[in-house]
Amino acid sequence: MINYDKFPVVQVSDHHTGCWIGWEAIIGEVKASLERLDKPVKKVVIECYQGVIDPEIIPVFRSAFGKSNFVISSDAMLTEEEINMFFHEDITDDELFGYMTRYDIDRFFDKEKVKVVQQYIDSLEGTVIVYGTGAAYLCQDPDILIYADMARWEIQQRFRRNEVSNIGVDNRNEHPSLQYKRAFFVDWRICDRFKKRLMHHWDYVLDTNIPDLPKMVVAGKVWEGLRKTASQPFRVVPFFDPGPWGGQWMKEVCDLDRSTVNFAWCFDCVPEENSLLLGFGDITIEIPSINLVFAFPEQLLGVPVYGRFGDEFPIRFDFLDTMEGGNLSLQVHPLTGYIQEKFGMHYTQDESYYLLDAGEDAIVYLGLKKGVCPEDMIAELKEAQETGVFDAEKHVGVYPVKKHDHILIPSGTVHCSGKNSMVLEISATPFIFTFKLWDWGRLGLDGKPRPINIEHGEKVIQWNRTESWVKRELVNKFTVIRKEEGLLEEKTGLHAQEFIETRRHWFSRPVLHHTNGSVNVLNLVEGREIIVESPTGVFEPFVVHYAETFIVPAAVGSYTIRPYGESEGKTCATIKAYVRHEASESI
């Protein structure tokens, strides 16, 4: 029986007071809130994250409050040509990569237009509605601030359906990958900076992630939910996507649509991309899980991690399914200096493959063959883009893998998972920075070749990582930390070059863990279900099922894990990741 939970909810309260569903109820609450104001002019700002569908919201508020007192923020923006020109250095002409923008919301706006619009707002009487991305920049003294937030995965689906554009431009028919790139490097950076400035001033949060099912909640309730989440184990909402190499394992284990050709990826702990579901009685509100990082970074991440990374979540868990599928692309990730210089990121994607499952013929491509000639390999890779033929095993090391193996992949290491593997990828977070070297001559799901990045890749490949080094440093570097009756704790990585530590626990009895000042991320890699409990009762018991990733905030401190339900009396296993620092060496 499948028990993987695809829609985990943090239940904040058992009633839905302070929540409204449907436009009629939402407008009713806004009007009631306005009636409580004793002012001749009442300003309502609806600030929108990129990706909100304007035609779903604008007609509703215009109808309720009148067209003449309705102001749209885009009317004060620069022209599309000016926006494209200004942000070109960050968007770039590259098909995949841009530069993490340093700019803020004001850079989308024309200063003279802003003055005119602000003067117009000041001239109005009665209720004034200012709507759109940057609305709170135009009107900085609202009586009511409604924040229309948007989940990243839903934004990506809207790109694919040609429903939304990037900020300040009409590019809804552009290729979704180009829209995503622009959002990743520009729009979302700016929206997040602005969001952090506004969060403590929100009056309401508007959730329009589900078409025709708008929801609104008092901002204080959202803060209550975030505060509760930062003090207990929780899961973010996983999402699944097919790919040219995808497999069939997740369909069965995670109960996915059997009619979909395959599922390649599952992002089950990438808080910048995932959502958080907050439950208020029978109403569930969806918000980006990155909001939790912004709201309570010290409690969630821990003081040392927050001090090192800021309000970013540095650990990523995701699935790569090639069971009955194909090889991933042969790839390499940038070194830290390279990603800083070229893309404006301050740390890179060091990673690892933990094998949740594997077929008898499962392999991983890792590192290089002894005596490989860099010039020859690069020349053959470039030639392969024309001929469609590249002998990977001539240049790259090949290693058989089995269930529960752990392969370490520090940046600069050539690698890819082969077919018939189910990988739990444990890595640092900047997942977009993959330099593909060879894609086995196949096409993407859109029928077009996927971009190859040999020009970037050749600059970061570490040519001294040959077979002897790989076997010594990267394959199953297991060290027994503790062995007792009913418990085996092992250090499984990561490499010394990487900032993440991983520990595996095999257990048939309760095991005491401690966050030691760092957020912990875990996955149940063996066993049907476990239960996470507080020795002091500070959080409710939390049940986890096979293959589910869960997060334990640093503020939790001590917690126990034991087999539960169908797994009672049996041996289970978890893999745990945290950021290395001096105080974090115990379990």
Can I get a quick summary?
The model is unreliable at 583-587 (pLDDT under 50). This protein has 587 residues and is of the alpha+beta class.
Principal-axes geometry comes out as: globular
Q: Provide the low-confidence segments as ranges.
A: 583-587
Q: What composes the largest sheet?
A: 7 strands, mixed
Mean pLDDT: 95
Please indicate the count of domains: 3
Lateral arrangement of strands in the main beta sheet: 2-8-7-6-3-5-4
Overview of this protein structure:
By secondary structure, this protein is of the alpha+beta class. The protein has three domains: 23-217, Rossmann fold; 240-270 and 313-473, Sandwich (Jelly Rolls), CATH 2.60.120.10; 479-579, Jelly Rolls (Sandwich). It is built from 18 helices and 31 strands. The chain has a seven-stranded mixed sheet. A six-stranded antiparallel sheet has the order 9-10-13-20-15-18, with no helix packed on it. Strands 22-23-24-31-26-29 form a six-stranded antiparallel sheet, with no helix packed on it. A hairpin with a 7-residue loop joins strand 7 (204-207) and strand 8 (215-218). The longest helix is centred in the N-terminal third of the chain and has 23 residues, at 176-198. It is globular, with a radius of gyration of 25 Å.
